Amino acid sequence: MTSRLTPRSGHRPPEAAIRRLLALGDLSDSELDLLRGLGDRREQRTPGEEIAPEGPDAIRPQLIVSGWACRERVLADGRRQIINVLLPGDGIGLRRHPGGELAAVRALTALETIDASCVAEAVCAGRAPGIAGALEAAENLEHLLLLDQLVRLGRQTAYERVAHFLLELQRRLEVVQLGDRQRFPMPLTQEILADALGLSIVHVNRTLQQLRREGLIELHSGVAILLDRDRLADIAECRAVHPRLGAAPPLKPATQPTATPAA
Amino acid sequence: MTSRLTPRSGHRPPEAAIRRLLALGDLSDSELDLLRGLGDRREQRTPGEEIAPEGPDAIRPQLIVSGWACRERVLADGRRQIINVLLPGDGIGLRRHPGGELAAVRALTALETIDASCVAEAVCAGRAPGIAGALEAAENLEHLLLLDQLVRLGRQTAYERVAHFLLELQRRLEVVQLGDRQRFPMPLTQEILADALGLSIVHVNRTLQQLRREGLIELHSGVAILLDRDRLADIAECRAVHPRLGAAPPLKPATQPTATPAA
DNA sequence: CGGGGGTTTGACGAACGTCAATCGGGGTGG
DNA sequence: CCACCCCGATTGACGTTCGTCAAACCCCCG
User: Fold this and answer.
1) Under an 8 A CB cutoff, do B81 and A146 touch?
2) Which of A17, A40, A202, B83 is the most exposed place for a label (fewest CB within 10 A)?
């Protein structure tokens, strides 16, 4: 039920986190040693377990070693919105929010984390400028993903949302070497997908079927395969940076923005 | 077309920004003087004008003196999602994002801004710790509003979204004394509301009609009146956060299924 | 062999979008 | 002062997307 503490199980370093930080900035040797030296104080969580409630209490800084988590908000009648998904290498509570966390954190799968308090301290004390920079970059990236999520929820169809989300997962997992350009682990249930994408379970299922039927993805036993990344990216409108609102005569009247399920 | 520069029009200090920062943190006298001394280098924008494109270029720090703006993203086929609305007293480009702006900034009404470069400098140089703290609090608040927006788009009905959004505007405008608990300026067209709430214009119109019919709001010539804030808050599921980020976790334990907005 | 969680499918309805026409008010030129 | 006009608000009819309900199915495990 509560997290089990495993004082110094295998002393496996947080590979994913190291890879992620290296991708976001340069780290000195001493910083790398600091990260590799982490390993006592690790915790295991079971799927569905709440790691931290929404509220004013600060969360102890942690890094995800394995497993997936999320930040979420739940309405009074049970509707849930997943704010973002946390993957191996992502941090929890690394950025202290002087008002408490804005959303609850919950394990989505079996989850292993390690305590990163000393990393947070080193960063605060200015003893790890490389890590500090990487964490700042990570925060910017997270903010960007949040805006992507906002556009997904506000202005994209179910079909587009799923494609966009799968591409996001693929990219993030590739950075921490938990997948390649085509294939990656996908342990989320359709219920979780629904809560992340603002859809119902049933509609997520049907949308996935459609993507399968069209030869765009495969989804077996916890593994996703993107069969046609280019077409998916096209559907998802990845990185649409075309400012110009005023006069917009080239609104595509001839194109079918929605690939109708009528197969 | 481009913004007109008005070197020292009336030397009106940015009252709204001062009030907002005072609500977010304590300012020293010298800091207040710094803010009151702003006033040369102001710019006027026309409604619809783009203030800054989405992209890597940094934006000159500015404060909104009057008028409303927004941050937005536009998809290739013209669909637009407004990320958030910027009100008098809000800043633009005050927080430098090392990867550039993540969304375009656009004036929604006639807009007056003043240059706040020297504020940004003072904060960076550590000469304005009070302002720095207030700006950090502002950033946290903005982040919180972003999560609200996410839940709105992902899990709330049109009816709930509109109620929630109006309440957000009321609270934010009250802080800068541009409205009271009931009444505030509302210069947004229904098209803008639609793009902010992820709805169509027509549906926004019908939802507003419904709120009017039920005696919850009035909306005349640029002024909104919330006739029954309590009921609106109930509809919107407000997780109220008011002056300085003081979240209250009144999670209702035994709630009834859905408070359906049955007409 | 039974059971439970996740997935799949069908039928149906509600929420929301689209198209198109009309209305209304404030600004502008005559 | 008035006619005109343009933009935004409003309304109706209709189509699509998506949600809900319910049942069947599947697979892993005890």
Assistant:
1) no
2) A202
Chain B residues touching residue A242 (CB < 8 angstroms) = 74, 76
Which A residues 131-160 touch B at CB under 8 Å? 136-137, 140-141, 143-144, 146-147, 149-151, 153-156
For residue A11, the model assigns a pLDDT of 60
Q: A81 — contact with chain B (CB < 8 Å)?
A: yes
Domain boundaries, given as residue ranges, for chain B: 15-236
Q: Label residue B179 by pLDDT band (50, 70, 90).
A: very high
Stated pTM of the model: 0.88
Of B76, B104, B155, the CB nearest to A79: B155
pLDDT tens for residues A143-174? 999 999 999 999 999 999 999 999 999 999 99
Backbone angles phi, psi at A98, to 5 degrees: -70, 50
**Alpha-carbon gap, residue B89 to B67, rounded angstroms:** 10
Q: Which of these, B234, B230, B208, lies nearest to B219 by C-alpha position?
A: B208
Protein residues with Cβ atoms closer than 7 angstroms to any atom of nucleic acid strand D: A 157-159, 198-200, 202-203, 221, 258, 260-261; B 189-191, 201-202, 205-206, 208-209
Note every long-range contact of A250-255, with CB atoms under 8 Å and residues 24 or more positions apart, other chains counting: A251/B77, A251/B78, A252/B77, A252/B78, A255/B77
Closest CA to B33 of B135, B173, B127: B127
List the single protein residue with the shortest CA to C1' distance from C10: A202
CATH for the A15-236 domain, from 2.40.50.140, 2.60.120.10, 2.60.40.1120, 3.30.70.260 = 2.60.120.10
Distances (CA, A) of B6 to A9, B10, B60, B112: 67, 9, 16, 10
Is the minimum CB–CB distance between B55 and chain A shorter than 8 Å? Answer: yes
Mean of all residue pLDDT scores within chain B: 87
